[in-house]
Every structure is written in structure tokens, then in C-alpha cells.
């Protein structure tokens, strides 16, 4: 079975259960999951609206990042999904999960996966603040 079990960029709500189910593996002694949600503030300013946009190459870049993590760590299963479109406060924006033989490896691989996703996959966040100002963030949060 393929190590990379689920990769997607979606305009529909994300499911922790789906992602966790995708990485279930009897060879894994440790599974980590990271869930990123829309918060009500950023840089000390109140966020009122938020949307994500993705470049057409985003899924291919997500696969490249996932393949690198799977090559660098003893990953038995990996999944990553990111939401695009308009999101509400509290909505899930991103979920990554990694299963490895041991917990330490799972934590390290999961951290690398979310960090590389944020820095390398072309997904942009547009925030609108209560004071009427806006901000574009170069990659997902």
C-alpha cells in the first residue's frame, strides 16, 4: 500500500476522522495529527473574515512535499488536506497526519510536513481585520 494515503486541496469542510482513518497502519507505533483552525486574531488585531486561495500547482507541490517527508523519515502512512475558499472563525483550515514506527519519528515527520506545506505549497491566506485593513499571507497558516 502507498505510504501517501490522502492529499487534497478542497473547498469543502475538512474531516479529522477522514485524515486519521487514512493513516491507520498496524506497522505504526506512533501517529500524530495536526489540526490548524481559523483564529479570531492575528498580530494583535481582530480577524473578521478569512479566505484561502491556491495556485493550480498547489496539489502537485503538496505531493512533492509529502514525498520528501516520506523519504526522509520512516513513514508508514501520511495524509495532508488543506481548505480553500471563505472560512469562518473556528473552521479547520489544514490537517496533516503521519504514522511512523515510533512516536518521536512521527512528531518530527509531522512537524516537517506542516512546516514545509506552509513554506513551499502555493496557498495564500487573505485576512480582513475589524479595523478594515487586510493582509495577504504568502503561505498557509
UniProtKB/TrEMBL annotation:
<comment type="function">
    <text>Converts molybdopterin precursor Z into molybdopterin. This requires the incorporation of two sulfur atoms into precursor Z to generate a dithiolene group. The sulfur is provided by MoaD.</text>
</comment>
<comment type="similarity">
    <text>Belongs to the MoaE family.</text>
</comment>
<dbReference type="InterPro" id="IPR003448">
    <property type="entry name" value="Mopterin_biosynth_MoaE"/>
</dbReference>
<comment type="pathway">
    <text>Cofactor biosynthesis; molybdopterin biosynthesis.</text>
</comment>
<dbReference type="GO" id="GO:0030366">
    <property type="term" value="F:molybdopterin synthase activity"/>
</dbReference>
<keyword id="KW-0808">Transferase</keyword>
<comment type="subunit">
    <text>Heterotetramer of 2 MoaD subunits and 2 MoaE subunits. Also stable as homodimer. The enzyme changes between these two forms during catalysis.</text>
</comment>
<dbReference type="InterPro" id="IPR036563">
    <property type="entry name" value="MoaE_sf"/>
</dbReference>
<dbReference type="Pfam" id="PF02391">
    <property type="entry name" value="MoaE"/>
</dbReference>
<dbReference type="GO" id="GO:0006777">
    <property type="term" value="P:Mo-molybdopterin cofactor biosynthetic process"/>
</dbReference>
<keyword id="KW-0501">Molybdenum cofactor biosynthesis</keyword>
<protein>
    <recommendedName>
        <fullName>Molybdopterin synthase catalytic subunit 1</fullName>
        <ecNumber>2.8.1.12</ecNumber>
    </recommendedName>
</protein>
